[in-house]
Amino acid sequence: MSTSAPPSYRRVMLKISGEALMGDQGFGLHPPTVQRIAHEVKAVHDDGVEVCMVIGGGNIFRGLSGSAQGMERTTADYMGMLATVMNALGMQSALEQLGIHTRVISAIPMDQVCEPYIRRRAVRHLEKKRVCIFAAGTGNPYFTTDTAATLRASEMGCEGVFKGTKVDGVYDKDPKKFPDAKRYQTVSYDEALEKNLGVMDATAIALARDNKLPIIVFSLDEPGGFRTILGGRGTYTRVQG
Ligand code: UDP
């Protein structure tokens, strides 16, 4: 059990990229990495926090790279959305091995595999302390899973979108290339958009801004990091109004 302060949030959205699940493999799902992230979610769930998740698909397929290779863009995007369903099922399996009840809820109905998205039903799952993993993005081509995370977080009444990355926040320049890069403690939505700080894509940030939904960028590589950040400690950047 971690010794950090208990979380001060009631309901949150955790957004991770598909790449976060691939470990050092360079492709697909790396089961020990998926299990490690499942433990991060369990620590927070055990504190009574209601957890929503959106997982990207970039470890399997990205619509833009498909269309760059000559594939029709919307078809490539649907392939990307299907990739997110695979990742969601992988995460569901890891969470259930830890005894956590979960639901995979897809924006594209596929009843034999997971539940279709029905807002009221999803809210009920959260109230019953089931982790809801929202799959297939927004269900529309030309969007990203960052936008899906912001959209579902708004619909579910989450208090923030927690974007778990490899970096512990948002910097003014790439911290891997520039040792003098400075991390923002807080940054406004408008500044993140204007300076193209790479928090999320512009659609996602604008949606968060319009719904006054904070985005908290933190590193998922720190063990126990998600719980620490929910307790208001650790290193992170908060994007807000
Ligand atoms: N995608 C989409 N609509 C959505 C969400 C995702 O078309 O609402 C497709 C898009 O092709 C994208 C792919 O799914 O490239 C994977 O999602 P994303 O790139 O957001 O994954 P991440 O970078 O977070 O792993």
Secondary structure elements and pairings:
Elements lengths: L10 E6 L14 H16 L3 E6 L7 H6 L4 H25 L4 E5 L8 E2 L2 H9 L3 E5 L9 H12 L4 E5 L20 E3 H6 L7 H9 L4 E5 L5 H6 L5 E5 L1
Parallel strand pairs: 1-2, 1-6, 2-5, 3-4, 3-5, 6-8, 7-9
Antiparallel strand pairs: 8-9
Helix pairs in contact: 1-3, 5-7
Bound molecules: uridine-5'-diphosphate.
Radius of gyration: 17 Å
Strand numbers in spatial order across the main sheet: 4-3-5-2-1-6-8-9-7
Order of helices and strands: EHEHHEEHEHEEHHEHE
Spatial gap, N to C terminus: 34 Å
What best-fitting shape do the alpha-carbon axes yield?
A: globular
What's the average pLDDT? Answer: 96
Which CATH architecture would you pick? 3-Layer(aba) Sandwich
Question: What would you say this structure looks like, in words?
Answer:
- This protein has 241 residues and is an alpha/beta fold.
- The protein has a single domain (11-240), classed as Carbamate kinase, CATH 3.40.1160.10.
- The protein has eight helices and nine strands.
- The protein has a nine-stranded mixed beta sheet with strand order 4-3-5-2-1-6-8-9-7, with helices on both faces.
- α1 links the parallel β1 (11-16) and β2.
- It starts with 10 loop residues before the first strand and ends with a strand.
- The model has no long low-confidence stretch (mean pLDDT 96).
- The site of uridine-5'-diphosphate (UDP) has 23 residues, from α2, α3 and α5.
- Residues 17-19, 56-58, 62-64, 77, 80-81, 83-84, 137-138, 140-141, 143-146, 148 line the site of uridine-5'-diphosphate.
